[in-house]
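User:
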Amino acid sequence: MKDLAKFYKGKKIFITGATGFKGSWLSYILTNFGSRVFNYSLRPHTKPSNFKLLKLDKKIRSFYKDIRDKKKLKKALTIANPDIIFHLAAQPLVKKSYNEPQKTFETNINGTINVLENSRNLKKLKSLVIITSDKCYKNTEKKNGYSEKDELGGTDPYSASKAAAENICFSYLQSFYSKKKIGFVTARAGNVIGGGDWSEDRIIPDFIKSIKNSSNFYIRSPNAIRPWQHIFDLCYGYLLLGKKSYGNSNFNGSWNFGPSKKNT
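Assistant: Predicted structure:
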C-alpha cells in the first residue's frame, strides 16, 4: 500500500460514479493517498449515503451530472485534465434492469462510449480503467468460473449491457488507442461486500435489515454460488491495475477480479 500511496500522491484522478458503493470507497482511499480527485456522477441516491458519511462531498470536486450527457462530461474532463480515469458510473442492478431496460442500456453502453470518446484527446491521460462486471460472460454454468478468454453474453439487460460495453472497449482499444501511450484496461468483478453498501437487493445488507426490522429474510437465489470479495480488496486491485497500466500498454485488455479458490 505504501508504494501505491506514493504513486497516487499528487495525481489528478477522475472517477465516474464516485457517489456509489465502489466509487465512494475508491475516492476515499485516493484522497488519503493525497490524490486530487474529481467526481462525475449523479447525486447520492441512497439514505444513508457512504459518499456523505465519508464527507467526500467536502473533500473532492464533484460534477453532479448524468454520464449519458456527452457535452457536460467533456467539459468536466477538460477542467480536470486527469492523469487517470476510473469509469464506474453505471446502472448496477440486475433486477432493476428488467424494470428499466432502456435506461440500463443507455447508461452502461452510451455512458461508456461517452467516456471513451471524450478521453481520446486528453493530453495528460496515462491510464483508462473501465469497470464492467463478471456478468459480462455468457452463462454456461461453469463450476470453475470464467477466464478472460471465455465468450461474452447476457440474457438480462444488465448483463447484456456489460457484455456490449466490453466489446465496445475492445473496438476502441484496437481502433483508436492502440498507438497511444495510454494504459487501457477493463476490470471484471462482482459480488462485492463491505460497509457502506445500501443499494437494493444486497444479500448481507438485506440480512442486517431483517434483523433490525424483525422481519423475514429471503434468499432470492438459494442455490447460487458466489465468489464473494471485500470492497477493500477490490479497490486495491483497481488501484494496482491503474498503476501498472500507467503509460504502459503491456497490460492493455480485460482483467478478472475475484477471490482465490481457497477463500471461496
